[in-house]
Amino acid sequence: MLVSYQQLDDLGVIRIDNPPVNALSQGVREGICDAVKLAQGDGTKAIVVVCEGRTFIAGADINEFGKPMQEPTLPQVNAALESLTKPVIAAIHGTALGGGFELALSCHYRCALTSASVGLPEVTLGLLPGAGGTQRLPRLIGVKAALDMMTTGKKINATEALDLGVLDRVFDGDLTRCAMEYARELITEGARPRQIRDLSIPNDSFDKDSFESYRGQLNKRKRGQEAPQKIVSCVEAAMGMPFKEGLAFERSRFMECVKSEQSAALRHIFFAERQAPRVPGIDKSVTPRVVQRIGIIGAGTMGGGIAMSFANAGIPVTLLDSSEEGLEKGIALIGKNYGVSVSKGKLSEHQAMEREALITGAVDYGKLADVDLVIEAVFESMDVKRQVFSRLDEVCKQGAILATNTSYLDVNEIAASTSRPQDVVGLHFFSPANVMRLLEVVKAESTSDEVVATAMALGKRIGKVPVLAGVCYGFIGNRMLRQYAREAQLCMIEGAEPAQIDSVLMNFGMAMGPLSVGDLAGLDIGYKARQALTEKQKGDPRSYCIADALVELGRLGQKAGAGYYKYDPETRARSTDPVVLDVIREQARKYGVQRRALSDEEILNRHLLALINEGFRILDEGIAQRAGDIDVVYVHGYGFPAYRGGPMFYAGQRGLVNVLKEIERLYEDTGEPYWAPATLLKKLVAEDLTLNDWIGVNG
Ligand code: 3HC
Ligand code: NAI
Q1: Residue 375 sits in a domain of what CATH number?
Q2: DSSP string for 345-367
Q3: Residues of the chain above pLDDT 90, percent
Q4: Does 586 share its domain with 614?
């Protein structure tokens, strides 16, 4: 029974029980409507709406989008609740999200546990609140606060919600009992049904210009996304139209969103993120090891950020560096980063102090004797890593997990430098590690299932999205990135300027263009890595000669004030530098490249198709478990626009047959082996299959 109705003396209780998150599937909607009919006809004086399980309603059932809509719709359910002629009280615990919060807004009063929160996260799924949220929330809390909540999708906690007037009462204790006491208080006071639909928004609270400037801000903040702009239109409608018309306006925009490619892409990412940590073949009988204390080796850029990720989740860390100086620098940077969070109001001073206190510095490996898991983040050199792992093998207790944060190196070889390769795994964090959500969990040949399960569970515990990867040069993300970065270099030498390449990819929706990313990371990193390679390993010189020449001119990127661009020392604003254009032309001459104008379309296609073709190879080899995992990697680790669903989803949207044709054309035109179409792509097209139909080597 998804919804039950019970009369308890003078109160009626509508109880929703649809695990795991009480999503508003068709059966729930129908059940609520039936309960409303019972409630209307009996002798009760007030109605409480409450949920079983871990949370209040988490929204519409996302699985139902894209299928024919079945009645009753959520707006119909909400209208029925709102029209009840006795007070209806929503009793919230956990999170009231999306349609769940909209349902609560259709109740006449709202109470919650102090631990609860509410929000309208539809925008993160490429949707807008489509069950009255855009019409009711501005009436309740004003236009600006409502727009902020709906366009960011951020939750607010019960205390903030109480201050804003979203909630009427908060309490600790047993939710149903407290909510029923509150309902009885309302009956005693003679409280009447109180419909938000009857409130009006003061016309002068947000004028036409304010809407225009809000839209402009959103164009920057939510570049390329349709739903946020539609939310603004709906709120404008709430001000200009009677409630009923406003609702119809909202519903039509909502249906447009549901059908949009952007929403399909974001829904794909929603489910892919949740599927990624699951590893077929590792059954539920495999229990993750207990991890209570972490060791980190190397207090540099990555070590510091990784330490913060654990401290932020309340897990104590011993941070070790080879020198006192390196350690002090690392600890000071962590302190500075927490200071910035305090100054931005993201953390209280107390919280920052508590987190910092969880990180203890060390230079003596003996301090790692009792850690449950240690992550190595020292220089990217196999010799150094092998030394570190053999030392860890000596000092760490039996059963401790030994992880490496290497970006490219062979985890099998690292594991072989210990006597316990079954306990060795790659944990590849992304920079800045305390911010980026992606975690590649690299399973080496001998890594045990128990260790993989522990890594997945731990990744989730610290708020990351863990994705399983196999061992190869660069794992999933960096292996694909090499192909993408090569196209940026080739497009430059063939005729495009850095600004054209960056703007094409930014317009597609990437968080940054490839050359700006290079300047931010520092061009010396790739340069140094190349120095360790043979000419053969480095590959075609046209794919790195410009970068090398810039480094040799001292143009190391943003930190040097110059790289592919020049940077204003004060504002850091970037501009095109004629020196760079000279370097590009000179390298083209050196390698006999005839420069030509490249169209934006060619630049975009080459970058994306390079990613996609390599993605198919990775999938075919079983380096990634699923196409969705590759998408999660690219969205969370490399700034690929979530509203395009990741490179593999995007390939599916373009049509695999079209993608194959374009790759074949590039192969014919260039003769370059890397443009040879991936076998799996050819197979899927030949058999007329989609990526969803394909069950990979791990599946
Ligand atoms: N519909 C269908 N399934 C949902 C769902 C939803 N709204 N929300 C969560 N689930 C599923 C997840 O897919 C997952 O399933 P799985 O176990 O098979 O993988 C399961 O519920 C548990 O979800 P999480 O792993 O995310 O659990 P957490 O405890 O970490 O988080 C949560 C719980 C905060 C509720 C989180 O699931 C969440 O944010 N859900 C989405 C909320 C949302 O976006 N709501 C808006 C929906 S659109 C809408 O309401 C339109 C309306 O305006 C008309
Ligand atoms: P870094 O140079 O900033 O820091 C390395 C730290 O390790 C330094 O503090 C150094 O003193 C310390 N160290 C060196 N040898 C040591 C040893 N034997 N014992 C203890 N400490 C030692 O390097 P960064 O950027 O933090 O990279 C670390 C690792 O993380 C590398 O393997 C790198 O490939 C990987 N990585 C780097 C990313 C980045 O964006 N910087 C992203 C993801 C992975």
Answers
A1: 3.40.50.720
A2: TSS-HHHHHHHHHTEEEES-GGG
A3: 94
A4: no
